Amino acid sequence: MAAARKALRISQVGLRGVVGRGLTAAHVIDFASAFGTFVEPGRPVLIGRDPRASGAMLREGVVAGLMACGHDVVDLGIASSPVIQHAIRRYDAAGGISISASHNTAEWNALRFFGPKGTYLSTAEANELLDIYHLRKFALKEWDAVGTLRADDAAIDPYLDALAAVFDLPSLRQLQVVVDCCNGTSSLILKRMNERFGFDFILINERPDGRNFAHNPAISSDTIAQQLAPLMKPLGADVGFQFDVDSDRVGIATRSGHAVSEEMVFPLIADHMLPRSAGKLVITNLSSTALLEHVVQPHGGRVLRVPVGRQATIDALAHYRSDQVALAGEGTGAVMMSQFEFIYDGIASMLAILSMLVERGRPLDEILAHYPRFYMKKAEAPLTSPRIPELLTALQQEYSDGVANVQDGLRVDWPDHWFHVRVSQTEPILRIICEQRDHPPTNVFDNLMERVREMV
Amino acid sequence: MARQHLLKIGVSGIRGVVGEFLTPGLACAFGQAFGTYVGRGVVLVGRDTRRTGPMLQHAVQCGLLAAGCEVVDLGVLPTPSIQMYTAATRARGGIALTASHNPSEYNALKLFNGQGLFFNHYERGELIDLYHQSEFYEARNEEIRGVRRDYESAQKLHVRRVLRYVDTGLVRARKFRVALDSVNGAGSIMSPGFLSESLGCDVAAINVDPTQPFPREAEPKPETLGDIAALVRERGCDAGFAQDPDGDRLAVIDENGRVLDNDDVLALAVEAVLEKVPGDVVVNLTTSSCVDDIAERFGRKVHRTPVGEANVVDKIQAVNAAIGGEGSSGGIIFPAVHLCRDSYSGMALFLHRMASTGLTMSELAGRLPRYYRGSGKVAYEHGRLGALMLNLEASFSDARMDRSDGLKLIWPDRWIHVRASNTEPLLRFSAEAKSEEAMEGLYREVESRLK
User: pTM higher than 0.90 for the full model?
Assistant: First the structure.
């Protein structure tokens, strides 16, 4: 039998891989030591993990690497990434590490790094961390300066306090809510929320499980349609939500049992939160739905489109004052708000949508029906041709009647439709995406795919 | 300038100064090599009280979990307790994070097999090869087990094992007043209760705070035990016991506050055990002839081995001995309790011996055959070792020779043992004779021939 393909990715986003098939204990120790060297000395570093079984191994390595670099470590145990990020601010910590492969399947795991305010590392910072990692020049301390470890298993309450300061939580009690926790960290938060605020949220797949998730944890309407959506009518629920394993993304099901596209999460939140935010700028990537512009403009907002990938969004955020930007997000169900100093947070996103339902007094199906309908079509082509730049140039000439954007591949916009062709950052493929208002973009898509096939 | 030996990866495991030399990466890789070697099953991990212990423990546990082992964290625990509990629970193996008697800046991994014994020669060789080859077992998510905590069971088992071999009623009735110095090490938690609750002693304890650094040199030898010796005198104690940081070595102080010679401590333990248990005695080549005199009295044989706990243990196993140890380093191995150096067996044996004979510690020591001992070291130039040894052999052709570990030259009333250090370019030598003059004469003669 051929050796199993290894899966390991070390990038600006951090360390990610299949444990035992690429991602090893040595990577974890070295990366934690690099981070311990990178962050400011003298302040603690916070860590937490999702329930994956391999998290126990990664945790030991992370603790050892940080302590060896002289940091006192505060372990929040099984905790979502947003809970860790909030706690970093509260502790005035040097930074934090989330041990979680988030929306990846159970065999994956990852280390994700946060800076002193619980924020994501900028590209410059991430590059510095990678340099330290690659050079293995770690600031390992002498025996009498090695750090200590302590546990804090009460980080959820202060996190909920922060959410309750922005959302009127008691008013949400009137809604009947079902949540699919996908065996992840959201169940701990939601159970506590039920206790503290008298909610009666019904939780499914709520047992944190390290080996088997009930379904693929990536947020997609396909997954929602399989388990959560069919439960909506029998349970008489007003709305349903699905979280990924570290609770930074959310998906939605409506009362009628409709699995809402993950593309809709951001426009919905923007519609509710933009009037409540000081800033008017909304940052998203070039591949997300044009509904966002439609929703944002009436509120006096402006959409800034940046290349696909979290790092581009984070770097774009750094170009503005925090009071200029209202929200940033992607079509994956990941949204961050100025109110929480820009942390991707599925729970906060859920609360925004619930607040919207209470405020409007209308079911989600009706709110969605009120928006113009945008139809999206996606395809991918193998990256077999070296002629990608030629292809993109040819396409730009061919579609010169539209408005071209070449920040990340090629996006061309017309008043009622657009397409985006780009090289994937994670796989050797070309991603093609088309969207059109009111009708499926069949002609545009077929025409575009024909051109692409001619070239690759 | 002398070479510095701040990291040693070799057949005895991994030992070094934490920071630049002994890193979490090395500890993790060694943990994963160990887990790969012993197989996916339970591995116990404990440590002494060194500041770097928790960091290294997490690193080792990371490697063990990555190899698919289930880890039981035993917390701060004497090395002999870890060894016993490994054997008793049928774990795949055990690891103690302790640099034993080395100073605070050092730490090390001591490795035990499923019988709770130090890895033997072959096991050590295989493990070190595995480590260097870096072909570790890589467990996948579904194979990764967790870390379980058990801070109580191993202590209880250890105390129970030791108490099986003493008449606790007899000892308790005497209500001995005993001084204790655990060097703020792994014994700090277990020893006070062992002496007071289990053996009914009135305990005057110093240095039993496991959160504090070592207050004295970690190795329990006469020069470093002034505080407990003073405590014995001040409080009128019947005896004083001093441990090393991981609780395997023991120093004994008599009721006058005199620290007993390590060889005499072992001889007393041998005497106490042979009185009750059948079997031979195993000691290393450097241990005093005093042991031979005692064994002769009981009609038992003394087997000599190269220096090193593992060598003594191997031989004890091979000849099914009653007792063994290494005189020079304060290690008493009482195999009925476990095949390891154990300060607790020593404390129990001595208290029992005082109770059963009605003699004081100084009286017991005073009855031992009297030998005069001296030891020293000489630096040698690289490449000259063989010539030095041959010269010694030629100069003392009238002596009986044992070449199993360096060179031991033996006459009926005296001996000298010369061996090269494993860690430094030094020749260490020990001499012993029936009279002080004979010892000093021998010492000087050998010293002059080594220069």
Answer: yes
